[in-house]
Amino acid sequence: MTAAMAQQQHKTGRNVVVVGTQWGDEGKGKVVDWLTDHASAVVRFQGGHNAGHTLVINGKKTALQLIPSGVMREGVACFIGNGVVVDPTHLLGEIERLEAAGVEVRSRLFISESCPLILPFHVEVDKAREAQRETSGAGKIGTTGKGIGPAYEDKVARRALRVQDLKHPERFERKLRELLELHNFILQGYLHAEALAFEPIFEHAMRVAEKLKPMLADVGLRVHETNLAGGNVLFEGAQGTLLDIDHGTYPYVTSSNCVAGNAAAGSGVGPDKLHYILGITKAYTTRVGSGPFPTELPMDEPGSVGHHLSTVGQERGTVTGRPRRCGWLDGAAMKRSILINGLSGLCITKLDVLDGLEEILLGVGYELDGRRIDVLPLDADEIVQCKPVYESFAGWKQSTVGCTKWDELPANARRYLERVQALIGAPIDMVSTGPDRAHTILLRHPYRS
């Protein structure tokens, strides 16, 4: 190796991907914010403003939906990759809310020109479909009604309006007329909803275009240049692996690929640039919306474990405010996530929510038609029929809130986590013991391992 090659190799930055390993809401935002202290840039690579990351910094809550969580770290570049669908009105609103709180955003936010746009008719189609499913008895999927799915459909059908089209008013106008005609046909003729007018959509889009143009960028190239300059990059996933459009509990899934491999495709870099994959999982399990959930617990009865998890964990969706369904940690589902993502390590969040429980159960597999199954099936109808198999652990009375060292945890908490680690076959590298940045136990650093 030449001296120049050695110098270049030394300078190249290290990249970490953060993904959820359950049905979303695992606490990724806090972990991304914590890791960003060691990164030059954060990239969001899929989803839209149907995702919600809540950060607590010095006791103050900040809810983000589209802008990468790294925005709360001064001087860190924030990239929205091509795999994200962008509602420009929502994006500008989120920028303005952060700016009102004293956070500098526009000088360090960069949006891929290849991002598909979410427009008003996508939202109306999304809402009308859910209403139709409910009326017909088919049952809601449980979408957020933000237009995410219809926007991805236009992308796959190769008819989407993209962020880059905002730079060309004549092209935007032509494509918008064609796309609106199609969606109005669907709204009126199939979904029995009202059509939308062209002019208000076009005029509003042109107004927001002037505000977004300075932030447009070739995200893949910028990430590459950041690495070459020695900067570390953090790739931030939204939702969770079990909501992945291909690998989740279909059809009760989101509209994008939430898995680690999509960090490359959704941001424009090669998979060789994904050096470490960190999976985030709660010490128990939650799910928002419809779909199978083998370890789910009833939450209505005060004093029950389900009620405890829901209330102590403050389990409500960041975007919708809907109550999250709660249950025991599902090790068999976790095995599926590890298989798909190729995890380097795990971060366990919300361990403190289990404080005070007499007994803690851990799902280690299922029984289905007299068979033992150790990994979550891919067929949602089969999952519904699965009966969880549990192992029991003694709880702990001591508080784990704010612990920053492994040895500070109660012995029973350590036994529980050690069994989780052995069951799923991935090392626990971090433990979150509260919502604040400082409430973190570090066992192995993703940027230094």
Short structural description:
The chain is an alpha/beta fold. Helix content is 32%, strand content 18%.
Characterise the protein shown here.
With 449 residues, this protein is an alpha/beta fold. Helix content is 32%, strand content 18%. The chain has 13 helices and 18 strands. It has helices at residues 3-11, 28-35, 88-100, 120-136, 148-156, 169-189, 198-212, 219-228, 262-265, 305-312, 331-341, 380-385, 411-424, and strands at 15-20, 41-44, 53-57, 60-64, 77-80, 109-112, 216-217, 233-236, 276-282, 285-287, 325-327, 329-330, 345-349, 359-368, 371-373, 387-394, 428-432, 440-442. The strands form four sheets. The chain has a ten-stranded mixed sheet with strand order 7-6-5-2-8-1-9-13-17-18, with helices on both faces. Strands 12, 14, 15 and 16 form a four-stranded mixed sheet that branches. A hairpin with a 2-residue loop joins strand 3 and strand 4 (60-64). The chain is globular and about 65 Å long.
Structure keywords:
ten-stranded mixed beta sheet, disordered N terminus, 18% strand, four-stranded mixed beta sheet, 449 residues, alpha/beta
Task: Count the DSSP helices.
Answer: 13
Major beta sheet summary? 10 strands, mixed
Rg to the nearest angstrom?
Answer: 22 Å
Give the overall silhouette: globular
What structural category do the secondary elements indicate? Answer: alpha/beta
Helical amount = 25-40%
- Report the strand count: 18
Average pLDDT for all residues: 92
Hey, roughly how much beta strand do the residues contain? 15-25%
What are the segments in which pLDDT stays under 50 over at least 5 consecutive residues? 1-9
**How do the strands of the widest beta sheet line up side by side?**
7-6-5-2-8-1-9-13-17-18
Through-space gap between termini: 24 Å
